[in-house]
């Protein structure tokens, strides 16, 4: 189950980073809203790993009066997101049945 949660967190991060710039504190709150209790000690290494893999790019910026590292999905990250989405659709159809929408 732990690997499934790790994949779901990656999917959430790439999804939001493809839509807009994100930062760690915001992502922690967003994940908590979906029931994920992710500590900064887990989230930030995940963000850094995704950046090392070329899926995210970051820069420091002032957000709400605080200096934050903001992340956005790279083109490689957007392609990985689409691949992850298709794998999720296929898994959902397999597990939930053929009536699951495409």
Tally of separate helices: 4
Rg estimate, integer Å? 15 Å
What does the main sheet amount to? 3 strands, antiparallel
Element-by-element helix/strand order? HEHHEEH
Strand content: 15-25%
Topology, pairings included?
Blueprint (H helix, E strand, L loop, with lengths): L1 H18 L2 E2 H10 L6 H13 L3 E8 L2 E8 L1 H22 L6
Antiparallel strand pairs: 1-3, 2-3
Helix pairs in contact: 1-4, 2-3
InterPro entries: Metal_resp_DNA-bind_regulator, Tscrpt_reg_PadR_N, WH-like_DNA-bd_sf, WH_DNA-bd_sf
Organism: Nocardiopsis tropica
Protein name: PadR family transcriptional regulator
Model description:
Pfam families: PadR. By secondary structure, this protein is α+β, with helices and mostly antiparallel strands. The protein contains four helices and three strands. The chain is globular, with a radius of gyration of 15 Å. The model has no long low-confidence stretch (mean pLDDT 92).
């Amino acid at each position: 189950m732990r690997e499934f949660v790790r994949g779901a967190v990656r999917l959430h991060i790439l999804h939001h980073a493809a839509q807009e710039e994100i930062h760690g504190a915001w992502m922690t709150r967003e994940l908590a809203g979906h029931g994920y209790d992710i500590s900064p000690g887990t989230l930030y290494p995940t963000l850094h790993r995704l950046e090392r893999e070329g899926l995210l790019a970051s820069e420091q910026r002032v957000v709400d009066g605080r200096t934050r590292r903001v992340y956005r999905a790279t083109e490689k990250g957007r392609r990985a997101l689409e691949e992850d989405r298709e794998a999720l659709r296929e898994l959902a159809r397999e597990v939930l049945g053929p009536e699951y929408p495409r």
